[in-house]
Queue: 4 jobs
Job 1
Amino acid sequence: MKPVSKEFRFPPGYGDNRIVLLIRDPWWIFAYWEISRAKEEAAARNIESRGQKAARSILRVYDVTDVIFNGTGAHLYFDIELKDMANNWYINVKSPDRSWLVEIGILASNNEFFPLARSNTVRTPRFGMSEMFDEKWMMQEDEYWRIFGFSGGFGAGKGSLEVRETAKRRLEEQVSSGISSVSSPMRRGRAV
């Protein structure tokens, strides 16, 4: 009789109290978090001891561009109400080239915010091509146009199928010309 093996499963949580922020693109950031039940309950007791009620869980998103943030001093902030059992969220910040920080917490009935965890700071990239030129990566203009042509660039406006067919035809021409020069009875001016 075979022993019954337990299938490995990741635990639903690790007992951490943290939120992590990542960049998706110039307009979006991504947050994921884990807050222990004990941390939430302690915050709720603190809110009740002040004569308030815990109203809702929120993510508070701060624009901290060129600011040393210590809980105040952000350029602006906005709140996202969390629903159900969410443990991650894509956040549209609508502004490229800015620094962002997020806190997860509880908003009390008097609108006082009780943070549970603060994220790292991230900076969204600027939108568009870089204005910096690095001579190390520059190429001669004729080389640029050759690569541009191989990439299908001269077929701008064509559909992907047409570009693929053009590239296939060029590759076949190069391969067949290479094969014909190898199989030719003449080699660099000498008869074989």
Job 2
Amino acid sequence: MAYLDVNNICVSYGRNQALNNISMKAEKGQIVTVIGANGAGKSTLINAISGVLRYSGKISFDGKPLPYPAYKAACSGVIQIPEGRKIFPNISVAENLILGGYALRDKSQFESRLQAVYELFPVLKDRKEQAGGSLSGGEQQMLAISRGLMSNPSLLLLDEPSLGLAPLVIRDVFNLIKTVNAQGVTVILVEQNAKQALELADWAYVLENGVFVAEGSGEDLLADDVVRRAYLGVRDAT
């Protein structure tokens, strides 16, 4: 059984079926990417895995059924970094990080987790007394990821981490994802920036209208003509 095993899940919003019998896997230590257009169901998939949304079907993690709702999933080591960052803008950087440690399974690790985050993001240590909302967009994304890392996750779910960021900042965010993964954290990355997401991926899925239409290694999908035309802006030669 895979580390994360999603089996035939369905999610509906009223009469609108957002996900239709979706199945996917992630092995321990992998970066698995899901790409697709707006409205394809990418965020719905992340929210189902993290326990934010109800679903039919089965999701298992590390050999056990993944608990529902979200706070139970978080306490099992599954942490979501939501789209749009959603930090707490009116409290300090340090207070945001303290709240991120709520799901830490071993509370004695709190100080070591805080120091590890500050080593990864020295700018956050420098600005720990500033309100979260006073940070730049890139720094807020760093804070959102750091808040998630405070709980020492085993599986990190990233929903559109490059959204609204400048190209140079996007590069830094993707480098950060590689660094976090190299530390042993399995990553599910939902992302519209298809090229960079696929370059990062051990395995990847293409989601369209609530179903997967392609899957393969990131390298293979980068070379796939259909994916290149639909998601990478590559046009046939005339």
Job 3
Amino acid sequence: MLIIGITGTLGAGKGTIVEYLVREKAFLHFSVRAYLIEEIENRGLPVNRDSMVLVANELRSKHSPAYMAEVLFDRAQACGKHCVIESIRTPGEAASLRNRGNFCLFAVDADPLLRYDRIRMRGSETDHISFDTFLHNELREMESEDPNRQNIKACIRMADYVFNNDGSREALFTRVEEVVDKLLKNAKP
């Protein structure tokens, strides 16, 4: 069994890699975003990026910097199948999952204007924003000394594989497939 974590910049293609792993490699998908939306809705808060950051930081402060990723890792491990956890946002999450074994961290990045166009087309509840807000949100999540806050830059540095997604979906899928096939071949039973 292999568990892959996905990190990366906003709109870079984390969901696109997940889509590929689920469709082509039969991975099960565990989403930090879905977990957070459930928690946000339970609290009666608006589903937006500010609420996501607020609730995620609160959960990490209350439990541990790796709390949400560990909950999802436990769920993934219990299913006994190859899984992907989207999205790893703190170094504590990445380190904790790596220490549990059979874990690999992927990172994805792309040009900011291309990423902004992608999120506008995606149109999720957190994507109806200006380019300036997009850049501000990313800057807020890119670095922090607080272990309970997002630090995407550090997570990308911790990744086992980094994918540039400035090209086509097919090009990204080809690169991901090469890595995943190698990982599955070498995965511990």
Job 4
Amino acid sequence: MTEISNQSFADVRFLTSVFDLKQLPPQGIPEIAFAGRSNVGKSSLLNCLVKRRNLVKTSAKPGKTQSLNFFLLDNSIYLVDLPGYGYARVSKKMQASWQNLITAYLETRENLKCVVVIVDLRHEVKTVDLQLVDWLRNCNKPYLLIYTKADKLSANQRSKNAAILDAGFGVSKSNRVLFSAKTGMGRDNLISALDSFIF
């Protein structure tokens, strides 16, 4: 069995950018996809997860990721960075193109073990996030909610905001992780949670 917690993180590398399903790497090893609104901290989370500063390029400009970006972890797990959604300044045509690519990937990829949905802990439930979670449920796709940027709130406020998000998404504490890429808070919990999805 392949588990993230058993990986040394010695060999973490960018593999390929996929703009069309025909470009997907061969199936055979587990994949974990990471989704979230633009500028929610997806790149920072991925860098924190694999303990690399600049493996995934972070940008102050939302909408920078325009493809499915595959990263190979110790030759045994794919981490897939999906394009951020909900960014108004990207053209409607490009938004539609991204959406079609993401949807087709999520629907058809047999070795996709989990979709990590990243949400900003500081804000209430956003419609686009809820739509994604509801769609994943309806398609019976395993998912995990990550409430990120937890370092920007006090412990008391973190608990209050998490409870509001839990209620909005209709999940329990076991279906989400509080996370901070800045402090590393929640990293071990994230790894344990992801391991539970990989068979």
